[in-house]
């Protein structure tokens, strides 16, 4: 039987507890057996954003998930053309791991933009997508597509933007990120 692997794509600039709570939920309370956190060196919709070096973002994800056998840091997009198109990443992952069945994990806030993604039609035809509703955003019609499933998940109202702003203001990021990530980020300032 093939393993079902959830893919959480992001810039992880930096990873935070919101990502981790979500990944652990999907890996332990759904039919997904592992969640891979795919670090996008350059998201197509975030070109020009201020990003920590990708190697450092990867290192922070690895620190955050250390010791958790159900979570994995996946740097495959580092070797693919930029910006990082999800369809290209899925194609590459399916070649590398023919025995796995990949499921896209996505916040409801990302769903309205999905029709503008590269090869969105093929992506939707070939891939199961689990969408978790986020407060303040309504799910578009796309949520009724055959391969789209709405899955409730516990959410924390924090973002990487909030972590970066807190760091810049010299404010605490304790509990917003794991202690190892906090140590790295506050030492680097
Ligand atoms: N607190 C959260 N709860 C649930 N999903 C989240 C949360 N924060 C981010 N996500 C989702 O995780 C994925 C990767 O997130 P990303 O790396 O872009 O982090 P972010 O915190 O949204 O970053 P930024 O604030 O820099 O835009 C995205 O699909 C995003 O919607
Ligand atoms: O494939 C696309 O066209 C595409 C367009 C926008 C975003 N994405 C992916 O979605 C992920 C989350 O995007 P973002 O901009 O919210 O960080 C990120 O890893 C991107 O690579 C993918």
UniProtKB/TrEMBL annotation:
Pfam family, one: CTP_transf_like
Listed Gene3D superfamilies: HUPs
UniProt EC number: 2.7.7.18
The protein's annotated pathway: Cofactor biosynthesis; NAD(+) biosynthesis; deamido-NAD(+) from nicotinate D-ribonucleotide: step 1/1
Molecular function via GO: nucleotidyltransferase activity
Keyword annotations: ATP-binding, NAD, Nucleotide-binding, Nucleotidyltransferase, Pyridine nucleotide biosynthesis, Transferase
EC top class named in words: transferase
SUPFAM superfamilies in alphabetical order: Nucleotidylyl transferase (SSF52374)
Domain annotation Cytidyltransferase-like: ranges: 8-165
Reactions catalysed: nicotinate beta-D-ribonucleotide + ATP + H(+) = deamido-NAD(+) + diphosphate
Function field: Catalyzes the reversible adenylation of nicotinate mononucleotide (NaMN) to nicotinic acid adenine dinucleotide (NaAD).
Protein family: Belongs to the NadD family.
NCBIfam families in alphabetical order: cyt_tran_rel, nicotinate (nicotinamide) nucleotide adenylyltransferase
Entry-linked HAMAP family: NaMN_adenylyltr
Name of this protein: Probable nicotinate-nucleotide adenylyltransferase
Taxonomic classification: Bacteria, Pseudomonadati, Bacteroidota, Cytophagia, Cytophagales
């Amino acid at each position: 039987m093939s393993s079902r692997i959830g893919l959480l794509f992001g810039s992880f600039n930096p990873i935070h507890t919101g990502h981790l709570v979500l990944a652990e939920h999907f890996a332990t309370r759904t039919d997904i057996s592992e969640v891979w956190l795919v670090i996008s060196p350059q998201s197509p919709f975030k070109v020009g954003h201020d990003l920590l070096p990708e190697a450092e973002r990867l290192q922070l994800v690895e620190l955050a998930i250390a010791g958790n056998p159900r979570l994995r840091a996946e740097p495959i997009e580092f070797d693919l053309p930029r910006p990082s198109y999800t369809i290209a990443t899925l194609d590459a992952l399916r070649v590398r791991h023919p025995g796995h069945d990949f499921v896209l994990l996505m916040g409801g806030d990302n769903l309205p933009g999905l029709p503008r993604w590269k090869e969105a039609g093929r992506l939707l035809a070939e891939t199961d997508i689990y969408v978790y509703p986020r407060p303040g955003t309504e799910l578009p019609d796309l949520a009724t597509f055959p391969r789209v499933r709405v899955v409730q998940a516990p959410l924390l109202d924090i973002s990487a933007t909030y972590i970066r702003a807190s760091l810049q203001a010299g404010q605490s990021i304790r509990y917003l990120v794991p202690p190892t990530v906090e140590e790295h980020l506050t030492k680097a300032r």
